[in-house]
Design goal:
It is a single chain. The protein has two domains: 105 residues, no CATH class; 48 residues. It is of the alpha+beta class. Helix 3 runs antiparallel to helix 5. The chain is globular.
Length: 189
């Protein structure tokens, strides 16, 4: 809590390749949406703290606090889904004029597909799947995903998208009467 009584969050980010660029991109998108009046978590100021312990680096930043609560997927009703869809639609419309250079979604997912392909091609993983789950995943299954993602890079009309829409990033208030949906992590990439 700040001296003026404002509640804030300090977020310590995991260490991974390219994390600083991801933090900056998410912060830029959050600031863009906050400036347009969206109830999103955004930085209190532009500073990002770097902490070093030997060869390990971590980053942290201070963010606004959002009231509200998450709800389990099984408790979502039609009103929740409609509020979520409307908010995502409005958010993506507001991001259409965001000129911050963000990572290409297709590139992000191509990297994930490559890791999945390598993981499921590993002989011990294949044996475990066969022995424990009676499953076999052929590496060729990933060809279609790659083709789809490479093809999507050729499409026009790209704009920033939310790439981390999971239950823990969506907060609801006044669920019964007036849906007030807030997005904890509006930036992605």
């Amino acid at each position: 809590m700040l001296k003026d009584g404002t509640t804030v969050n300090v977020i310590l980010y995991k260490s991974e390749p390219g994390i600083l660029d991801k933090i900056k991109a998410a912060n830029a998108v959050s600031a863009h949406l906050a400036a347009k009046g969206f109830p999103v978590r955004h930085t209190v100021d532009s500073r990002i703290t770097k902490m070093t312990n030997g060869s390990h680096e971590k980053y942290a930043a201070v963010y606004t606090y959002l009231d509200g609560h998450t709800i389990p997927w099984e408790e979502y009703n039609q009103d929740h889904i409609k509020a979520l869809g409307m908010t995502m639609s409005n958010m993506h419309a507001a991001l259409a004029d965001c000129d911050y250079l963000l990572p290409d979604v297709a590139d992000e997912y191509l990297a994930i597909v490559a890791r999945m392909r390598a993981y499921f091609a590993d002989a011990p993983v294949q044996r475990a799947l066969a022995d424990k789950l009676l499953l076999a995943i052929k590496p060729e299954v990933f060809d279609g995903f790659e083709q789809l993602l490479v093809g999507s890079k050729l499409l026009p009309g790209k704009q920033p998208l939310h790439m981390d829409l999971v239950r823990s990033n969506v907060l609801f208030e006044d669920v019964e009467d007036n849906e007030d949906l807030k997005v904890r992590r509006p930036g992605g990439g």
